[in-house]
Amino acid sequence: MSASLKVITLNLAHGRRRGLHQAMLGKKRIESNLDQVTAVLLGERADVVALQEADGPSIWSGRFDHVAYLAERAEMPHFFRGEHVRGMKLNYGTALLSRHPLCDIVTHTFAPAGPRPTKGIVVAGLRCPAGSERMLDVASIHFDFSSRSVRRKQAEEVIQLLAPRRRPLVLMGDFNCGFGGTEGTLEELASALGLKAYKPTADMATFPLRNVRLDWILVSAELEFRNYATLPDVLSDHRAVVATLDLAERKPETVR
């Protein structure tokens, strides 16, 4: 029998949902937007949720911690928020919410890329199934939106960070690129870390404005996709992606 793990990734867009910019919304409106995210998370009952553009107390988005707000209401008591942008009364980055304890947590902010806000990744260990001795890593990542060369450099940083952990990996987030074409970033990253995508060339747009697939769940060879979907709910300018993963039992070693 195999253990299963249900995961979701969502670029939260600072809680603005359909709004033009979060600075134009009041705290109550942003709370209402996050309540709609909560409803989806409660309905899906995922084990782990990866968030990007997830705010701590920031002047432009209600001055409260969006990650803690969602964690409490979605009944996911274990969470961590990486602060990849901090200063000028702003605080945001990537985050993980989990129903199960997280350990060996690392947050990494990518090297600055000119005047654009910095991006980054958070990664944590998780026992699967809960209570077992078997560990895997779950990670939430956000790559640069405007430059292929910057994304490739960020991929190199991710490889250096994650390869030494030597665990099965679920890497989720807004990669701001897809498989195929001349980009090559995801192909390089997947090859170096031994990851695979679900139907990488399928038409499963996660960023409707451009009708492109930017948000991905990549998994190690030890994991299999039981199901995978882009959710229709309008929670931000991105669509959430959900997958149920099977982790096969280890095969017993052959005695020679």
Short description:
The protein has 256 residues and is α+β, with helices and mostly antiparallel strands. The protein has helices at 27-44, 66-73, 148-162, 185-193; strands at 3-11, 48-55, 78-81, 85-87, 90-98, 103-109, 120-127, 135-142, 169-174, 195-196, 215-220, 223-230, 241-247.
Question: What portion of residues is helical?
Answer: 10-25%
Q: What is the second-level CATH architecture?
A: 4-Layer Sandwich
Classify the fold: give the CATH topology. Answer: Deoxyribonuclease I, Chain A
Instruction: Enumerate the spans where pLDDT stays under 50 for 5 or more consecutive residues.
Output: 251-256
Number of domains: 1
Shape: globular
**Beta-sheet strand percentage?**
25-35%
Task: Give the CATH class.
Answer: Alpha Beta
* Average of pLDDT: 94
Backbone structural class: alpha+beta
The value of Rg in angstroms is: 17 Å
Model description:
With 256 residues, the protein is of the alpha+beta class. The protein has one domain (3-247): 4-Layer Sandwich (Deoxyribonuclease I, Chain A), CATH 3.60.10.10. The chain has four helices and 13 strands. The radius of gyration is 17 Å and the shape is globular.
